[in-house]
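so my prof wants the structure for this chain in the tokens format not the other one, which i didnt know existed until like an hour ago. anyway here's the sequence
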Amino acid sequence: MGEGNMKGQDPLSPPQKRGRRNWKWFLIGTVIILAGLVLYRGWGFTQKRSGAQRAARIEIPVQTTPAIHKPLTYSIKVTGDIMPLMQVDLFPKVSGYLERMDANIGDIVKQGQVIAQIERTDYLQKVREIEAKVAQVRAQLSELETGTRTEELRQAEETVRQAQSRFENAKLQRERIEALYKREVISKKERDVTDMEYTVAEAQLASSQQQLKLLQLGARQEVREASQAKLKEMEAILEQQRNHLKDTRIIAPFQGEISRKYVDAGAFVSPSSPSTPLVSLVHTETLKIVANVLEKDIPLLKAGMKARVRVESYPERVFEGGVEKINAALDLSTRTLQAEIYIPNANRSLKPGMFANVEVVLLEKPEALVVPREAILEAGNEMFVFVVKGKQATRKPINIGYEQGRMVEVLKGLNVGDEVVIKGQQLIKDGSTVRVVEGS
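here's what i got, hopefully its the right format
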């Protein structure tokens, strides 16, 4: 009986039964958690794909305009001060009191016109003195070059004959005395006197003959050359004094207008430093503006190109000018090239010192493909636009050329009629769905 009861009892104890039940629930919980994670990830993927599909279906509003052909004018606009074509301060070249002033501020003077006169009496007197000295030296040189006069030559010949006669007499006398001395008729002293007279007569004959020879030959070459040099020196001094006399007149070097007057008649003026100018003269019939041209525009700039000039004093007028001179080298500090623009100003409406705006047309194309500047975007070194076809925006890289106002030339990447986005392009990307709306 005891053995039958033992066979009917559960071999596991109560603690063991509870452990088995806990393990079963742990496994069931783990399976449920894993299944939840799988279902969540699948739901998230489905949501992302449906979100992308919804985003693809959203139409972004944009405004477009077609790429068109139109004439293109490329010009540069610069500013600058209007300056006279020529400007000079006139200084005196000689010292003296200002006798008169023949010009005042605002007067128009011609080239070569006398503007002022310095007192000239002293300079005129010096010219006359030197002229007299030149005449004297010239006469002396002429006498040397002409030769000895006939009367002087006749007198010299007569002197030679007389000397020859005296010499022959002295010679005969010497021979006679020598014979008497040898016979001891006369003393040695008498013979010595006769010898001395012979020597003197011989010397006089030689001297007279030499003088005659010189007169016959004329002046020596070195004497004539010295006289010629003296004449040239005096003529140079005369020319200098005449220039000083000429410089007492202050002459206008070109036609222009007196812009400033510094002294009045009666003032003492001098070229010595520091010197005060008499007047300032400016040429205003033609004016100029110095324009600084950027390095990229230099290949297009040519002398003779037309320029349009505007000033605040005449806001409704456009003054025509032209590029006259172009510098040969760039300014290293600004990397620009200076060009001079000349403006005809016959009626003198424009004044030196006015501030001007200048436009120079560098290039004209009768037909160029252009788009508005705001259609063009940049990414690094690439420029591009968005072209709309249907409801899709496509990104297209482009190469650009010149600009005119807000229009930019497109050299490559577009065709005429392509609809380019001009508003809303910052919100789209390549392939975006767009909706074209009318501009405000």
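also thought this was worth mentioning. The chain has four domains: 60-69+366-436, 95-119+248-277, 127-241, 283-365.
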